[in-house]
Write a structure and sequence with these properties.
The complex is a heterodimer. Chain A is built from 6 helices and 6 strands, in the order E-H-H-E-E-E-H-H-E-H-H-E. Chain A is an alpha+beta fold. Chain A has a 6-stranded mixed β-sheet, with helices on both faces. In chain A, strand 3 and strand 4 form a beta hairpin. Chain A is globular, with a radius of gyration of 17 Å. By secondary structure, chain B is mainly α. Chain B contains 3 helices and no strands. The chains are: A alpha+beta, B mainly alpha. Chains A and B meet through strand 4, helix 4 and strand 6 of A and helix 2 and helix 3 of B.
Chain lengths: 194, 71
């Protein structure tokens, strides 16, 4: 027998799939990001996350404050591959099985209500994203978790703190030029092994 | 499907030790989450305290609403 798995709520926050609750759609309509260059993350959640669910292109999860039911943050995961050419032979490629953290944002309206308490993103990453990715890796071969991080120095440093690494510049530029989708243009490839 | 397991094993060994991006990724150690875990725990505790304050505010608002309704 192979048992299913559970990602537990924490004491103060719950995690749900976006289709789990009928009230989530209304909450999503109020979601805001603080940085202008991150507005794509806000628009994705509002306008594209549900259609991606229907196509099984991506799974989006919302994190809610258990006391107030406010939307604290969200993230999306999708199956992915880290693909590279091997050596100088341009015809030979191989890949590492991985999970893409395709979206990850905290709700700036929620953050504004709790200005003295930072690290909400760290909490979401450590308690929800990482356990989910690790659980998935117990069921299918997954070596790494990766992101295309928005090109913001502060954000890159933050992801490094969360355990993500950058590749050497020449490897990174290969991803930027060959693998990364157009809508992630300018974003920085970062990964961590699971 | 792996048609030749021996060849597969040799290839994976080459990949793991190779000076290629994939080799570098495969050799990357798992991150140390000691600091992340500490921060996540501190955040949860800070939110617990914040929620205690919120509960008082919510209880007060409910009591006031009830008082108004009964007046």
């Amino acid at each position: 027998m192979i048992n299913g798995f559970t990602i537990k709520d924490t004491k103060e926050y719950s995690i749900e799939h976006i289709y789990d609750s009928s009230s989530t759609k209304d909450l999503i309509a109020t979601f805001k990001v603080s940085e202008r260059n991150a507005v794509g993350l806000e628009n994705y959640l509002k306008f594209f996350s549900f259609s991606d669910e229907d196509d099984k292109n991506s799974r989006t999860y919302v994190v809610k404050d258990k006391l107030t039911s406010e939307l604290a943050g969200y993230f999306s995961l999708r199956a992915g591959l880290i693909t590279y050419q091997l050596g100088a032979d341009y015809d030979v490629f191989d890949s590492v099985p991985a999970i893409e953290l395709s979206n990850f944002a905290v709700n700036s309206l929620y953050k504004e209500k709790h200005p003295d308490i930072p690290k909400l993103g760290t909490h979401i990453f450590y308690n929800f994203i990482l356990p989910l990715a690790n659980q998935i890796s117990n069921y299918i071969g997954v070596n790494s978790l990766y992101i295309y991080a928005l090109p913001n120095d502060k954000l890159i440093e933050y992801y490094k703190k969360l355990g993500f690494s950058r590749l050497p510049p020449e490897d990174e530029s290969f991803v930027q030029n060959h693998v990364k989708p157009k809508y992630d243009e300018g974003c920085i490839f970062m990964y961590q092994t699971l | 499907m792996v048609r030749d397991a021996e060849a597969y094993g040799k290839y994976m060994e080459y990949l793991r030790t190779s000076d290629t991006p994939i080799g570098r990724i495969l050799r990357t150690p798992k991150p140390d989450f000691t600091e992340v875990e500490k921060e996540a725990r501190e955040f949860e505790e800070a939110m617990r305290i914040e929620h205690e304050k919120d509960k008082v505010i919510i209880a007060r608002a409910i009591a006031e609403a009830k008082e108004k309704a009964s007046a």
